[in-house]
Amino acid sequence: MYPPIQNNQVSLLIKLGHYSALFLGMADRATCYSYLISQAEEEKRIAVEEKKEEDELKRIVREVAEAQDDSIFVCLFFSFPYDKS
């Protein structure tokens, strides 16, 4: 087993490479994270828009169905002969 290396025995070039790689890795992860956050926000915005459109279509279908029901009752009411006496 080798004894642990003292900090002052490590080459400055190796230290520089180590900390440079550490910094570049952190910068890469930060870039990736910001990209993923923007993608998630975009997906959430699209989902909200789709939900609004779906709700609007459901409302329109419900209103049309109610209007058709009302018109059927009106037609049935006026289509039957009634006695005026």
From TrEMBL:
Statement: the UniProt record of this protein carries the keyword Glycosyltransferase: no
One of the record's GO cellular component terms: proton-transporting ATP synthase complex
Cross-referenced InterPro entries: ATP_synth_F0_esu_mt
Parts forming coiled coils: 37-70
Top-level taxon in the UniProt lineage: Eukaryota
Annotated localization: Mitochondrion inner membrane
A Pfam family hit: ATP-synt_E
Keywords linked to the UniProt accession: Acetylation, ATP synthesis, CF(0), Coiled coil, Hydrogen ion transport, Ion transport, Membrane, Mitochondrion, Mitochondrion inner membrane, Transport
GO BP: proton motive force-driven ATP synthesis
GO molecular function ontology, one term from the record: proton transmembrane transporter activity
Function of the protein: Subunit e, of the mitochondrial membrane ATP synthase complex (F(1)F(0) ATP synthase or Complex V) that produces ATP from ADP in the presence of a proton gradient across the membrane which is generated by electron transport complexes of the respiratory chain. ATP synthase complex consist of a soluble F(1) head domain - the catalytic core - and a membrane F(1) domain - the membrane proton channel. These two domains are linked by a central stalk rotating inside the F(1) region and a stationary peripheral stalk.
Subunit structure: F-type ATPases have 2 components, CF(1) - the catalytic core - and CF(0) - the membrane proton channel. CF(1) and CF(0) have multiple subunits. Component of the ATP synthase complex composed at least of ATP5F1A/subunit alpha, ATP5F1B/subunit beta, ATP5MC1/subunit c (homooctomer), MT-ATP6/subunit a, MT-ATP8/subunit 8, ATP5ME/subunit e, ATP5MF/subunit f, ATP5MG/subunit g, ATP5MK/subunit k, ATP5MJ/subunit j, ATP5F1C/subunit gamma, ATP5F1D/subunit delta, ATP5F1E/subunit epsilon, ATP5PF/subunit F6, ATP5PB/subunit b, ATP5PD/subunit d, ATP5PO/subunit OSCP.
Family indicated by similarity: Belongs to the ATPase e subunit family.
Name of the protein in question: ATP synthase F(0) complex subunit e, mitochondrial
